[in-house]
Write a structure and sequence with these properties.
Layout: H1 5-11, E1 30-36, E2 40-47, E3 53-60, H2 70-79, H3 83-106, E4 113-120, H4 122-128, H5 134-137, E5 149-152, H6 153-156, E6 165-168, H7 178-186, E7 195-200, E8 204-211, E9 214-221, E10 241-248, E11 251-256, E12 264-265, H8 267-279, E13 305-308, E14 311-315, E15 321-323, H9 324-348, E16 357-361, H10 370-375, E17 387-391, H11 393-403, H12 405-414, E18 418-420, H13 429-436, H14 440-448
Parallel strand pairs: 1-4, 4-6, 7-16, 9-18, 10-12, 16-17
Antiparallel strand pairs: 1-2, 2-3, 5-6, 7-8, 8-9, 10-11, 13-14, 14-15
C-alpha cells in the first residue's frame, strides 16, 4: 500500500508536540489535519500523543455547487446576501462529515478531538472562518488577513471537544495562501541548494521559485479540469478513474486507479488525453479535434469519433468521451501553468537550463509521470530528469502544523519572506499565455521521434 505524504511525515516527526488543554487518559487525545482545496477536501485523524495517523478521508468540496473556482465563489458572496453563510455552512458540514467518518472507522469519539490544523488557499480560508472574501476578488486584491489564525472549534461549528482549537496556517497574498506555505515547508524547498521550482498543480496552480533559498511565487488559475471537474466524463481521483491514456496500434490503452473498470476520467487522465489525441491524429496542435471528413474512408480511427449536433468528441471507451470543450479546458489549464512557469523564470532572469530541480505537488501531479507532464504541455521539454513528486504537500504541511510547535513557528516565519509576483502586471504576459495554449511542443516531439 502506497503511503500518503501525511503518513510518511508521521514516521519522521521531529520537534515538540503542540500543547492543548486536555481531559481524559493518555492515548485519548486526537487531532485532525485538513487540506481544504477548491475542488477536493482531505482530512487525517491523528493521535496527538504519538503523532500516528489513524485514518484518511477525502471528498469533493460541496462549495462547487456555488461556483467551480474561487472567483465564482467570491462572486456568489457578492451577489447573495446570505452567500457567505451558505459557503461557510457547506464546508463546515463537509468537515464534520469527514470527521464523523474517520471517528466511525477508527472507533474514536469526536469528544476526544482537541485540535484541528487547516491548510487552504486564501479564499477557502476566509470562507471557513466566516470572513468576507470579497476584497480578494477586487483591486487591489488584498485579503482581510494572511497571518495564522487560532480560534475555538465551537466558534465555527466544528464537532469536537469543548476545548478544541482550530489552527489555520499562514498565507502570503490574495492568491498565494497557506496551502503554498505548507507545501514549501513540507517539501523542504528552502533547503534546496541552487535553483528549484515548486509547482502545486490544482484548480489554483501556484508556482514558487527558490533561488538559493530566496523565494518568488505566482498564482495561475488553472481551473477545475486538473481535478476532474468541469469535464464531460470527469471525476475525482478514485478507483476506476482513468489516470493515463495512450493511443497505440489504433487502440486506446487505459490505466485506471486500482486497475478497476473505467467509470470516468480524473485530472491526470484528462491531461494525458491531449498527447494521446494528438499522437493518434485526432487533434491539431492548436487544440481543434478533426472531423469525419478529415479522415480517409475506412480509417480505423473513424469508429472513435463522436458527434451530437455541433458538439464533437472522441470515444475513449464506449461510454467515456473526450469532447472539444474538454480539450479547451485542458488548454486553459496547461496554458496557465506553463505561462506561469516561463513568466517566473523570465522575471528572475534565469533559464530552464539553470534549474536544478522541479518539485511537483498536489494529488493531481502524483498520477502523472514526467513524460506525460511534458507531453501534455504543463511543463517545457528538457526537464525530464529534474522532476520529483511530493504528493499533497498542503495536507502534509497541515499534519506537521497539527503535531509540531516547531513546524508552526517555522511556517509563520517563512510566509512573510515569500515574494509574490502578479502575472498580469508582467510585460507581455498575455502574449505568453496565448502562446502556451498551443500543443506545439507535442508536435515538435513527434517530428523528432
Amino acid at each position: 500500500m502506497i503511503k500518503t505524504g501525511v503518513e510518511k511525515a508521521s514516521q519522521i516527526l521531529v520537534g515538540s508536540m503542540v500543547d492543548f488543554e486536555v481531559s481524559g487518559d493518555v492515548g485519548e487525545h486526537f487531532g485532525v489535519a485538513v487540506d481544504v482545496g477548491t475542488t477536493t477536501v482531505a482530512a487525517s485523524l491523528v493521535c496527538l500523543d504519538s503523532g500516528r495517523v489513524l485514518g484518511n478521508a477525502a471528498t469533493l468540496n460541496p462549495q462547487k455547487a456555488y461556483g467551480q473556482d474561487v472567483l465564482a465563489r467570491i462572486s456568489f458572496v457578492m451577489e447573495n446576501e446570505d452567500g457567505l453563510i451558505k459557503l461557510q455552512e457547506s464546508i463546515i458540514e463537509c468537515l464534520n462529515a469527514l470527521v464523523e467518518q474517520l471517528c466511525k472507522e477508527t472507533n474514536v469519539s469526536f469528544k476526544h478531538i482537541y485540535n484541528f490544523a487547516i491548510s487552504a488557499n486564501p479564499t477557502m480560508m476566509h470562507v471557513l472562518l466566516g470572513v468576507d472574501p470579497t476584497p480578494i476578488g477586487l483591486a487591489s486584491y488584498t485579503p482581510v488577513f494572511t497571518k495564522w489564525q487560532d480560534v475555538p472549534a465551537s466558534q465555527i461549528g466544528l464537532k469536537a471537544t469543548d476545548e478544541c482549537r482550530v489552527y489555520c496556517l499562514p498565507g502570503v497574498s490574495a492568491y498565494v495562501g497557506a496551502d503554498v506555505v505548507a507545501g514549501i515547508y513540507a517539501s523542504k524547498l528552502t533547503e534546496e541548494m541552487g535553483n528549484a521550482m515548486f509547482i502545486d498543480i490544482g484548480t489554483n496552480g501556484e508556482i514558487v521559485l527558490s533561488l538559493n533559498g530566496q523565494l518568488f511565487a505566482c498564482s495561475c488559475a488553472a481551473g477545475p479540469a486538473l481535478e476532474g471537474a468541469n469535464i464531460s466524463c470527469g471525476m475525482r481521483a478514485a478507483p476506476g478513474a482513468i489516470e493515463d491514456i495512450k493511443f497505440m496500434n489504433n487502440n486506446f490503452v487505459l490505466k485506471t486507479i486500482n486497475n478497476k473498470p473505467p467509470i470516468g476520467i480524473c485530472g491526470s487522465g484528462i491531461m494525458a488525453a491531449a498527447p494521446a489525441l494528438l499522437q493518434g491524429g485526432f487533434m491539431k496542435a492548436g487544440g481543434a479535434l478533426l472531423k469525419e471528413k478529415d479522415f480517409k474512408e475506412g480509417d480505423p480511427r473513424l469508429k472513435y469519433l463522436w458527434q451530437e449536433g455541433r458538439a464533437r468528441g472522441v470515444h475513449i471507451t464506449d461510454d467515456i468521451i473526450i469532447t472539444q470543450q474538454d480539450i479547451r479546458q485542458i488548454q486553459l489549464a496547461k496554458g496557465a501553468i506553463l505561462s506561469g512557469f516561463y513568466a517566473l523564470l523570465q522575471e528572475s532572469g534565469i533559464s530552464i537550463d539553470d534549474l536544478d530541480k522541479v518539485i511537483i505537488a498536489g494529488q493531481f501531479g502524483a498520477h502523472l509521470p514526467p513524460q506525460t507532464l511534458i507531453e501534455a504541455g504543463l511543463l517545457p521539454m528538457g526537464l525530464m530528469d529534474k522532476i520529483s513528486y511530493v504528493g499533497n504537500s498542503s495536507h502534509t504541511g497541515a499534519y506537521l502544523a497539527l503535531t509540531s510547535k516547531e513546524a508552526r513557528q517555522q511556517m509563520e516565519r517563512l510566509a512573510p519572506n515569500i515574494n509574490f509576483k502578479e502575472l498580469s502586471t508582467m510585460p507581455n504576459y498575455e502574449k505568453l499565455f496565448v502562446k502556451c495554449l498551443n500543443f506545439n511542443q507535442l508536435e515538435e516531439r513527434n517530428e523528432q521521434s
